[in-house]
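Sorry, explain these tokens?

***
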Amino acid sequence: MKNFNIVGLVLAVAGAISTFSPAQAADPRCQFKAEAPDQHTVVRGDTLWGISGKFLQHPWCWPEVWGMNREEIRNPHWIYPGQIVYLDRAAGRLRLGKTGLATDQGAGSGMHLSPQVRMEGLGKDAIRSIPTQDIEPFLSHPLVVDETELASAPRIIAADEGRVIMGKDDRTYVRGNLQNGTSFQIFRPGQPLRDPETKAVIAYEAYYLGTTKLTREASGNSDVHTFKIASAKEEISVGDRLKPAPPTPLINYVPHQAETPVKARIVSVYGGVSYAGQNQVVSINRGSAHGIDLGTVLDLYRHGQTITDRTEKKGMLGFGGGTQVKLPDEQYGTLFIFRVFKNISYGLVMQVTDTVRVGDVAKSSD
């Protein structure tokens, strides 16, 4: 996870210049802070979220003030330490330059520089969207499997010498369709995740146990494959399942609004507890099937309870009415989505003034 070398990234022309169009930053919600600085020099350890927060009321407005289209949000240019982010107050736009070169490249001209892509060390030194140390363990480990995946996942049926518990370098025997894969993660099915609204099971948590590699594929009359455990985070047992090792994830996504309005509910707090705070991971009951993608930012709301209005008058007897009334949802924070499955997503709690609870609302900004 320490060295991110992105192969095949299409390079943009460094320092490409484009003209500001007021229509591109017309969203009235995307206001700059009154106390926003005129410029910020990017330093190692900065994040897109942190820089956005210095200039903007809402960090998800970052693409708006850069004039980024949808493809640029999914595959953004990199920003590196040493570059300077300038605030053009007249144009209502941010732009990028290099230390010592800003005045030569159109400061105050109504122009802006696209974030630069450079050839050497591609991606290695670029700033990330959010603090990677908070989400690194969740980027490659299988967190969620649906019922179809669970039913079809290859499974460990035995180990050498009849062992029940296995560890690194142990030989194991597996049955199931490998789909031409050779490297797998080992996981153990966990508790079902239920939709807070429908109560239906939408997925299962998966506990990451380690990795394993194929040493001999099943042949002849046998359907049993031979594997060797490459790494073990926890004890591995007969009955544990295999999932193809995912490719190294890209974590340069840009904070942005969902393409379509989203209203989700908090399904779980990672670790099996009921409450979460800032920089903790939670799951929501919406995923790629609902328009969620990497970098989507949602507002967190306390789900308003439904109560009985006991102040309502009831006939000649005075108070004691029984009308059911739902209280408004109350906003208290933001959530940054960093991993997306079909019907469920994982997000990092960014800023909160209250604890996050299972059942709370996560939705697009009004």
About this structure: Confidence is low (pLDDT under 50) at residues 1-25, 100-122. The chain has three domains: 17-133, 141-244, 263-363. Residues 48-55 form the longest helix (8 residues).
